[in-house]
Amino acid sequence: MKQHKPPVGASMLAISLCHSTRIVTDLLLSRAGSLLQLLLMGLMLSSCMVGPDYQKPDIELPQTFKEGSQWQRAQANPQGALDSQWWLAYQDPILNELIQRSASANQSIIAAEAAYRLAQAQVASSRAGLWPTVGVGLSAARGEGGGASGSTTSGLTGNSSGTIEQTVSATLSASWEPDLWGQVRRGIESSQASLQSSDALLAGVRLSIGASVATNYLGLRQLDIDIDLLQQQQTINQQLLEMVQAQTVQGTATNDQLLVAQDQLSSVITNLQTAQRSREQFEHALAVLVGVAPAQFNLPATADYRFTLPMPPPTLPSSLLLRRPDVVSAERLAAAANARIGVAEAAFFPTLNLTAEGGYRGSAFGGLFALPNRIWTLGPALAETIFDGGAREAAKQQAQASYDQDVANYRGTVLGALQNVEDNLSAINHLHAQASAYEQMYQRNQQLFGSTQAQKHAGTVSQQSVLTQQLVLLQAEQNWRDTQGLLSQGSVALFQSLGGGWQEHSAAQAGR
After folding, report:
1. Is the pLDDT of residue 224 over 90?
2. How far apart are CA 294 and CA 166, in angstroms?
3. Which CATH number is correct for 50-133+181-216+274-349+392-510, 1.20.1600.10, 3.40.190.10, 3.40.630.30, 3.30.720.200?
4. Full-model pTM
5. Other Cβ atoms within 10 Å of 37 Cβ, number
6. Mean pLDDT within 383-408
């Protein structure tokens, strides 16, 4: 009866594997002469990289902005969007807090950060292709072999004389494909450029969310002012309606005058309801932007809110426009596409694979690492594709077309950025003129209201005339304050269109 050895435990396997690794390493080192020569040859060949080296696409930019002739032309900037706490220019602690909350809790920013981490992992994966692959193995097999000496009529084999055979081996293997033509390095270039594009997109999402928070917040504060002024107008219109109703009863006012007074009150009520609805929607939007449910978010009204209107200096740094995250991202995508052309071209050249394997093979663990059981293989393999039906040429054409597409997208993004800046400059210029005109109208109506009050005290005008003039004054104030709100929101859009902030050192100043 044959004796069967008990199964080997995990600890015994680990000890044997470590022992075999040490012995096999010594074996490979004893053969390092020829292997070193192959490695040196591979390293020398790896100095070559096929494919075009990247050159940033040229684009013609105007010397000045059409709507801001004093501003300098935007030149190319270092890659990567500049960070700037531009919202501090509005001098509002509540706005500062909301933007900071959105930066850590907004789901769009969280998703963009995850995309950035994915791009980082892809760079690490590409770099792994430069290094050899090393593996270790430990295996055991048991089986029966031999022939049959006869058979029965039923077809069953009888009198078998097979023997039980078992094989145990411990091996260490290594393989390396030198980057002869730069295929791996071009792939690293591409993934690094994609990572930089992802970084710019993340900065763009942060800028966009911050601008959305500021725009919605300033719009909400504008509606706080409107609601307060409309409520005052509603009160005055109600008083005027009651006066006209009394005059109608007395016969000193016509029914037409009564209808007009009723319409004026109804118009103010509808405007008030519209303003209140819009304020609630702004508040809901702010809740989502800071990452909470609308039911969990509330901003008390501030009827006496004063807008801060940050304006750019007459001359701006030339690096502002092309630091925009979307422009940086588009340029980096073009760089990534250019590197992929080199990857496609490298496929036309042969590949060299260097492999080495050493270890021990025997019939039992006991005595496995004896010299007679030693095995090893070492050698290079050179391969070249002769015919692929045009697949490599098609891949190269696809890479070239992708690059041309990304270059066109980059240039289009820059032109779109120029248009965006011009639109915002135009809006701010006209809103400034409107705000100045409305302010003058408000000041004149203040004088008229004061004059009407004086006449009322003198007994030359009625209370109805005073209320009517006060109503005109409130409407003039509403027009002026609304234009200030629009101008403040327009400055946010200009901040965003320039990539955030007026100056490159604004972030450093904000942190002082």
Report:
1. yes
2. 71
3. 1.20.1600.10
4. 0.80
5. 10
6. 92
